[in-house]
Design goal:
Elements (H helix, E strand, L loop, with lengths): L2 E7 L3 E8 L5 E8 L3 H15 L1 E8 L9 H17 L3 E5 L3 H7 L15 H32 L20 E2 L3
Parallel strand pairs: 1-4, 4-5
Antiparallel strand pairs: 1-2, 2-3, 5-6
């Protein structure tokens, strides 16, 4: 069994989590601020090495009808580049509604006493928690799909789960 690094990729931040396939444990690691692809790859490669992760699981922001819109295409291109630059295989996991689910369980924002508005620090902390929680949800879905496929007698390839999660043709990519 191996460790997986889960990524919730946004335009400015990447929520990061790690999972251990043997135990099923998933935990948030933090966020990485987006930079250039070489810088992103260097940071993620270091994190993967520190955590003993051998695979990246990247949330794919599919449209509600299951199609791949512009954001999904950008995420795929970025993920393929991360695979090439880090040398790690990439599994794609449908991430529809993970951010919304993560936002729904967050406590109310702290508000400034004088203005009644949320503070910048409170907003930043909430965004960080949401991004991390979305990365955790992506990894949990990936582990569930792998366990389900294993129980059915067919071990899927990375990121693939027959009948679950990803529409046909969105399986795995190695970036090569």
């Amino acid at each position: 069994m191996s460790r997986l690094l889960g990524l919730d990729v946004g335009d400015r931040r990447i929520g990061v989590a790690v999972a251990d396939e043997a135990t099923g444990n998933v935990r948030a690691l933090g966020i990485v601020r987006r930079a250039t692809p070489p810088e992103d790859a260097a940071r993620l490669g270091r994190l993967a090495s520190e955590q003993g992760a051998v695979e990246l699981v990247i949330g794919l922001p599919l449209d509600m009808d299951g199609g791949e819109g512009e954001q999904a295409l950008r995420t795929r291109a970025w993920g393929d580049e991360m695979a090439t630059r880090t040398g790690l295989p990439v599994a794609w996991r449908d991430e529809r509604l993970t951010t919304e689910a993560a936002e729904a369980v967050q406590p109310p924002l702290r508000r400034d006493r004088s203005t009644g508005r949320p503070t910048r620090a409170a907003i930043a902390a909430r965004r960080s928690r949401v991004d991390q929680a979305a990365a955790v949800a992506i990894l949990r879905a990936e582990l569930d799909a792998r366990v389900g496929a294993h129980a059915a007698g067919a071990r899927p390839g990375p990121g693939e789960a027959p009948g679950r999660g990803m529409p046909e043709g969105t399986g795995t990519g190695t970036g090569a």
